[in-house]
């Protein structure tokens, strides 16, 4: 498949998948000026280069190190905190990656939460009998079945994508609760005798982990010295080389594989073209329906694996185990601008906040108020420089409020701590809203032969 589509005068660009129609004034849709080759279509902003990303990461590390010294909150950069954050980020990231596959093919998938539920139940059902690796496989299958239901409803029957996703969530909740009572809670059953009930499965074995002995011990020793920046970096790196689940390694491989599959292969170009201009893709011989089915099924499988990760991590399936992580995964996909790297960054952020409220509690979240206040103050100055008076004023007022809150208190109420991951979700989505560029044909019904 080439990077240009014919038949209707529409050009499909291989990297972004955006379509540009030539016209008399040399402009592209969305306000992009077609006279400059350096401009991106649809007014999209230039991508962050690797040096800029590394500078952002370095700046964040320095900020966290300073925060630790100023506030005395060692949990901000401790290896235990980041180990917990990594474990919390994996299911969210897998759900977000699943959403990316589906929506890049043009199918909105808010049924990720239900697909994760199916994955957790399938993992709990198989895991106590066959072990954690079979539990992971069962989770993939369970989530894929949920994705297949969503694909049948949206792709074949043309059901509204939002309605179908909500239906999948409700259906999955009812199915797993019914089957849990039937298989785990039945009196005299093998599952009940092994410790299961209508709210949870019997326990399963531990998932194997790996540790790099010499490196892990050395980083731990450096972390204990509490040196500026050096010990903080050692604490963060130590979480990646000590007691890491093999499922985490698999998740990292899936992110890398998704990038190469979707952006470095003809298969990925065809799949993304289905989400940008399915009619143009059809004129080039792409079987749009088949690609949409494949994308949504893979989406469910990835979400199901994320659900299985939850069950395997605590050794059992539990009722309501997903806890809204499918919705947060959807938020990471949007925050990440429908790119694997962005999804991974968003999952890391939300995983960090989730682990923070579980491990550290009020004092550490209180310390973060200072960091957020400084960041919002910097954002206000940047918006003011760009001429955004309203945004600058709002950011400045919130920054002052958070600073006053930090100075007048010593901790944060438990209720606010529990809300912190969801507040973070709202904040990052509001900040990222202006740079988002979803696939052009997302959520639109498609019927074979529309372009003829």
Throw out a few tags for this protein.
4 strands; 2% strand; ABC_transp_permease; membrane; 66% helix; two-stranded antiparallel sheet; mainly alpha; transmembrane helix; ABC transporter involved in vitamin B12 uptake, BtuC
SS class: mainly alpha
Question: How many helical stretches?
Answer: 17
Question: Whole-number radius of gyration?
Answer: 24 Å
What is the overall pLDDT average?
A: 84
Strand order of the largest sheet: 1-2
Helix content: 55-70%
Descriptive account of the structure:
- The protein has a domain at 72-210 and 241-360: ABC transporter involved in vitamin B12 uptake, BtuC (Orthogonal Bundle).
- Helix content is 66%, strand content 2%.
- It contains 17 helices and four strands.
- The protein has helices at 50-71, 79-104, 112-130, 132-156, 161-184, 190-193, 213-224, 230-238, 246-263, 266-276, 278-283, 288-314, 325-335, 340-359, 362-386, 389-408, 414-432, and strands spanning 10-12, 19-21, 209-210, 244-245.
- Strands 1-2 form a two-stranded antiparallel sheet.
- Strand 1 (10-12) and strand 2 (19-21) form a beta hairpin.
- Helix 2 packs parallel to helix 9, helix 2 (79-104) packs antiparallel against helix 14 (340-359) and helix 13 runs parallel beside helix 17 (414-432).
- The longest helix has 27 residues, at 288-314.
- Residues 1-34 have a biased composition (Gly residues).
- Residues 1-42 are annotated as: Disordered.
- It holds the Pfam family BPD_transp_2.
- It is found in: Cell membrane.
């Amino acid at each position: 498949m080439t990077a240009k589509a014919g038949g209707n005068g529409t050009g499909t660009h291989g990297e972004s998948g955006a379509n540009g129609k030539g016209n008399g004034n040399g402009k592209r849709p969305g306000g992009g000026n077609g006279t400059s080759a350096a401009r991106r279509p649809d007014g999209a902003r230039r991508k962050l280069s690797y040096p800029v990303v590394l500078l952002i990461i370095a700046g964040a590390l320095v900020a966290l190190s300073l925060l630790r010294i100023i506030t005395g909150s060692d949990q901000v950069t401790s290896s235990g905190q980041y180990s917990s954050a990594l474990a919390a980020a994996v299911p969210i990231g897998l759900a977000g990656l699943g959403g990316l596959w589906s929506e890049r093919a043009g199918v909105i998938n808010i049924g990720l939460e239900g697909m994760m539920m199916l994955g957790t139940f399938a993992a709990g059902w198989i895991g106590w009998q066959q072990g954690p690796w079979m539990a992971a496989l069962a989770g993939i299958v369970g989530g894929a079945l949920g994705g297949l239901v969503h694909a049948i409803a949206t792709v074949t029957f043309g059901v509204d994508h939002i309605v179908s996703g909500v239906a999948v969530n409700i259906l999955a909740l009812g199915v797993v609760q019914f089957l849990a009572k039937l298989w785990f809670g039945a009196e005299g059953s093998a599952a009940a005798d092994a410790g299961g009930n209508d709210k949870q499965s019997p326990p399963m074995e531990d998932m194997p982990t790996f540790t790099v002995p010499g490196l892990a011990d050395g980083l731990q020793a450096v972390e204990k010295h509490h040196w500026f920046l050096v010990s903080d970096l050692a604490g963060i790196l130590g979480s990646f080389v000590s007691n890491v689940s093999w499922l985490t390694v698999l998740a990292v491989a899936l992110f890398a594989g998704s990038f190469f599959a979707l952006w470095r292969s003809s298969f990925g170009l065809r799949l993304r073209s289905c989400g940008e201009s399915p009619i143009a893709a059809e004129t080039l011989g792409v079987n749009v329906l088949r690609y949409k089915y494949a994308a949504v099924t893979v989406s469910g499988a990835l979400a199901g694996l994320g659900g299985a990760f939850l069950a395997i991590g605590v050794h059992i399936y539990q009722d309501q185990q997903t806890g809204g992580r499918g919705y947060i995964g959807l938020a990471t996909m949007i925050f990440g601008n429908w790119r694997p790297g962005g999804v991974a960054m968003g999952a890391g952020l939300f995983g960090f906040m989730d682990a923070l409220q579980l491990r550290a509690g009020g004092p550490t979240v209180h310390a973060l108020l200072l960091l957020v206040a400084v960041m919002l103050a910097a954002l206000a100055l940047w918006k003011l420089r760009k001429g955004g008076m309203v945004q600058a004023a709002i950011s400045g007022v919130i920054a002052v409020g958070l600073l006053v809150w930090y100075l007048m208190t010593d901790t944060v109420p438990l209720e606010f701590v529990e809300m912190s991951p969801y507040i973070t979700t709202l904040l990052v989505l509001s900040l990222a809203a202006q740079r988002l560029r979803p696939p052009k044909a997302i959520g639109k019904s498609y019927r074979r032969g529309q372009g003829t």
